[in-house]
Design brief:
By secondary structure, the chain is an alpha/beta fold. It folds into two domains: 116 residues, 3-Layer(aba) Sandwich (Rossmann fold), CATH 3.40.50.720; 183 residues, 2-Layer Sandwich (Dihydrodipicolinate Reductase, domain 2), CATH 3.30.360.10. Strand 1, helix 1 and strand 2 form a beta-alpha-beta unit. It is globular and about 55 Å long.
Length: 341
């Protein structure tokens, strides 16, 4: 990759922002040219700009108006996504917008429209797609080597974001007005996308229970259990939320069990195990997370190669539709049919 482009970051409100800054700074085809503070944790954005030796902007629009800027990572609270995308798209800047894409399908549609009409790339980084074991499972499914997919069981647990060590304030994640949901939306939407991606099909029906099970007095949910039936008959089950106790050895716990007609895949994130059980043999591998590096590289390559990124705004909208259907099902106690949502 010989061409280069210039990227910036808008906001350190999201806990993921420091990882994206590190990946952007390390990419051989990227000049990291600036960070803008917006929303929570502006002081972290200012400190990061000093750390990387690049300009800091109090006004994110000033960063967007830099002629050399090619695109931005958007790490704001989701309630600010639409405003930032509107300004970025109007200036022809490509957009890597953290999840969820929006809090409503209407806002998601508007974000997608703005990017499409401006001719800019829009990507939402769902980390599981760039975790090596799931990439191997997806390849085995797509090639037919794994046989027919039957079901997927996923667990995605984290710790309460207000307990993230350090001076940052991530309180917006437990504010229903700013976050739109709690642990199930925050942690679970990554796995929701992974279920849909592995299934290779649109969702048909959702049944879920989402609520506050572990953190008494929390104004948002901390745990959700969901079953989703896809149009091709694959069934996915997900348990997701802020369920890890303080004593848990890692911040995140990501597990997948993928059952096919030729065997099963077991993926365990805390201890980085990947097991493939086939008809005649079992394979075990150790893996390590390089997902954020892969996501940034995909964004960069999509821009340089002038193609759609692997994870589009439409993918992010579909994941949001499933997650919102889970909340709707939990509230009504009924199965929710997605139809053309």
């Amino acid at each position: 990759m010989t061409e280069k482009l210039s990227l910036g970051i808008i906001s350190y409100a999201h806990p993921h922002a420091p990882k994206y800054a590190a990946a952007i700074a390390a990419h051989s085809a990227v000049d990291f040219i600036g960070i803008a503070g917006l929303g929570s944790n502006a002081f972290l954005a200012r400190n990061a700009a000093a750390q990387y030796g690049i300009p800091y902007y109090d006004d994110f629009v000033e960063l967007l108006e830099e002629d050399e800027l090619t695109g931005v990572y958007v790490g704001t609270e989701p309630t600010r996504h639409l405003d930032v995308v509107r300004e970025a798209a109007a200036r022809g800047k490509h957009i890597l917008c953290d999840k969820p894409i929006a809090l409503t399908l209407e806002e998601a549609d508007e974000i997608i429209r703005l990017a499409r009409e401006a001719g800019v790339k829009l990507m939402v980084p769902f980390n599981p797609r760039y975790q090596l074991p799931l990439m191997k499972v997806k390849a085995a499914l797509d090639s037919g080597e794994a046989g027919e997919l039957i079901s997927i069981f996923a667990i995605k647990y984290g710790k309460l974001p207000t307990k993230i060590p350090g001076p940052a304030d991530y309180g917006w994640l437990v504010d229903p007005e700013q976050a739109g949901g709690g642990g199930f939306l925050d942690i679970g939407i990554h796995a929701v996308d992974a279920l849909r991606w592995l299934a290779g099909s649109a969702a048909r029906r959702v049944y879920a229970h989402v609520g506050t099970a572990l953190c008494e007095g929390l104004p948002v949910d901390d745990l959700g259990l969901m079953t989703v039936e896809f149009e091709n008959g694959v069934v996915g089950t997900l348990s997701a939320g802020w369920a890890n106790p303080d004593s848990y050895p890692t911040w995140l716990d990501v597990r997948f069990e993928v059952l096919t007609t030729n065997g099963a895949f077991l993926i365990d994130s805390p201890y980085h195990d990947y097991w493939c059980y086939g008809p005649d043999r079992a394979e075990r591998q150790y893996w390590w997370r390089r997902d954020v590096d892969g996501l940034v590289d995909e964004f960069v390559r999509a821009i340089l190669e002038n193609r759609e990124p692997m994870i589009t705004g439409g993918d992010a909208r579909a994941a949001l539709a499933i997650a919102l259907a889970a909340y709707e099902s939990s509230a009504s106690g009924e199965v929710v049919t997605l139809g053309h949502r």
